[in-house]
Write a structure and sequence with these properties.
Strand order of the largest sheet: 6-5-4-3-2-1-16-17
CATH superfamily of the largest domain: Ribonuclease Z/Hydroxyacylglutathione hydrolase-like
CATH architecture of the largest domain: 4-Layer Sandwich
Number of domains: 2
CATH topology of the largest domain: Metallo-beta-lactamase, Chain A
Structural class: alpha/beta
Oligomer: single chain
CATH class of the largest domain: Alpha Beta
Largest sheet: 8 strands, mixed
Helix content: 25-40%
Order of helices and strands: EEEHEHHEHEEEEHHEEHEHEHHEHEEE
Shape: globular
Length: 315
């Protein structure tokens, strides 16, 4: 199960209602910030999430509307004892701009208050934790080293408490061993195997973020059968030529991607001020019914096999 909070949903420039690109993905105690447009730190505070454990930042690309907020965020971290280190992940060109921004402007010769780690991205596996993985996939946009991200929960077998109780498996480390695939021996001498107390394999949840991109077809394999696809929808189909020129998708193209990739839900972000929200929704839903335009501070819970759940953020 993942949660996604949208902090900024506008394209290129902020509007009265929408900040610049940024979203947080949460999984258990993990938090990942995807992109950090101007004003992101205020959006984090406004959302009520705060900075705790927000030490991993994934950047889709190096355009200023996706990275300028790092200046304020690092400046704030330099005055607060919020964390010991910050990991910033991005393509080579993106990290060059980030390095100039942080070390040439924000810190400018000062010693970093926290350990700032800049990690170059290559397509493929980025993180491999016990319960989930993160993959980066290349996308086509203006400029080099642009990426999208997939968060994939590992499949699991549910622990069947009733069977464990019937077999006399005590609560504690024995049950943990069985979940980890190890057989145990009871005080009676009976051996209990994982298959005795574990159910059928349940696939994990998969959510994908396209970032800015102008080629939906190239993403089919990477976003295939995602429970949730978060896609940019900067233009309407009436201006498809303009979308192509600037390396962006239309709402119609995002919906076609959702259909072809057999995703369950489509959330549209990075929307332009030039359109009414209702027109973006109408264009996407004409092809893909479960498509929605997100707004700043929208908060969703995503679970494999369950309906997409929008949470009350108290705003």
């Amino acid at each position: 199960m993942f949660e996604v909070v949208f902090l900024g949903t506008s394209a290129s420039a902020p509007s009265i209602q929408r900040g610049l690109s940024s979203q947080i993905v949460m999984y258990k105690d993990y938090r990942f910030l995807i992109d950090c447009g101007e004003g992101t730190q205020r959006q984090i505070l406004q959302s009520g999430l705060g900075f705790r454990r927000l030490d991993k930042i994934l950047l889709t690309h190096g355009h200023l509307d996706h990275i300028l907020g790092l200046a304020g965020l690092i400046s704030t971290f330099s005055r607060w004892d919020a964390m010991d280190r910050i990991e910033i992940w991005g393509g080579k060109w993106t990290l060059e701009r980030v390095h100039d921004l942080i070390f040439g402007v924000v810190l400018r010769g000062d010693r970093p208050p926290v350990n700032i780690e800049l990690h170059p991205i290559e397509p493929g596996l980025l993180y491999d934790e016990k319960d989930f993985q993160i993959y980066a996939f290349p996308v086509e946009h203006r400029g080099p080293d642009c990426f999208g991200f997939s968060f994939v929960e590992k499949s699991r077998r549910p622990f069947l408490n009733e069977k464990a109780e019937a077999l006399g498996v005590p609560r504690g480390p024995e049950r943990r061993d069985l979940v980890d695939g190890k057989s145990i021996k009871l005080q009676s001498g009976e051996v209990v195997h994982p298959d005795d107390v574990l159910g059928e394999v349940l696939p994990g949840t998969k959510i994908c973020f396209t970032g800015d991109t102008g080629n939906a077809h190239a993403l089919l394999e990477d976003v295939y059968e995602a429970d949730l696809l978060v896609s940019e929808a900067t233009y309407l189909d009436s201006e498809a030529d303009l979308a192509r020129r600037f390396g962006h998708l239309t709402a119609k193209q995002a919906a076609e991607l959702a259909i072809n990739a057999r995703v369950r839900y489509l959330l549209l972000t990075h929307v332009s001020r030039r359109y009414f929200e209702r027109d973006i929704i109408a264009e996407a839903q004409a092809l893909f019914e479960d498509a929605f335009v997100v707004r700043d501070f929208d908060h969703f819970r995503v679970r494999n096999g369950q309906p997409l759940e929008k949470l009350d953020n108290g705003r």
